[in-house]
Structure prediction request, 329 residues.
Amino acid sequence: MSQSVLKSPLGWLASNPIWGFIALIFIFFSFANPYFFALQNFQNILVQTSTIGVIALGMTLVMINGNIDLSVGAVVALAASLCVDIQGWSLFADWGNWAILPGVVAALVAGTALGALNGLIVWKTGVDAFIVTLGAMLGVRGLVFVYTKEQSFFAANFSFSDFGSSSIGPIPTLAALFLISTAIVHFVLSRTVHGRNTYAVGGNRSAAVNAGIRVGPHMMINFMIVGFLAALAGVTLSSQMGAATPNLGTNYELWVITSVVLGGTKLQGGAGTIMGTLGGVLAIGILRNGMNLMQVPAFYVLVILGSILIAVLLLDKQLNRKGKEELRL
Prediction:
């Protein structure tokens, strides 16, 4: 009994190696820069990772299904633009701070609806999600430029901007929202029928159909979840900035996918955890923050992250090869 207790932390770390990597870079940056190990800096890391992190939670579900969503960055921009613009309409001029509500609701509904549309097309046509969401990424981004007329929107309601910079005790509100969302999605994935079905669909779609799982509607729900969370990220990001620009969210899909894959979710589906994704998000956040404190040029961070991602994918591929598929040197 005692041996299993002793082995369990090591076993957990072996199945979630990203947390070992986090420990290493955390120790390194703690010695490399005196400002890294400070409460305010940890708060900054959580806030900086909250936007990507919220989207990554939904992307984890979609990727465990064996799909992918490249439109999340464009959805961030659309949601932010709708949220900031609508709350400033003359129709809601007498609503006071309540004018924020229709803007937020419109943004979340738009993100969820676009996710539903992506899922419906994948379900009904059988076209690969990569192609469907690539088209959605281009189309939605173009729609944002048309809607905004290539102009930025600025929030006139200071309460909206104050939310983005507020805190709940020592924890920034945006970081708290991210952590709460993480707990909810973790519960859904690990403790509900929908979560079990997510692994089943990604692991073997034919077997899932034979088991009575309605694969199409199930995948559509996960696309709706990632659409909702991408829209939520757009709302929180515009609140943090006090504005929305048509270029908002550019390349976010790449950062999100990188975080999810670093966290151990397999591109082919069937495996992954929210705790792993949380680790992937924090690893990127700590790397970017630590190297920024050390005044390392930003493009070196991209080189390092790219190298780590390729190494993780190669290692995963090698560990999963058997027999004739083994690497020949």
Remarks:
- Strands lie at 153-154, 167-168, 171-172, 243-244.
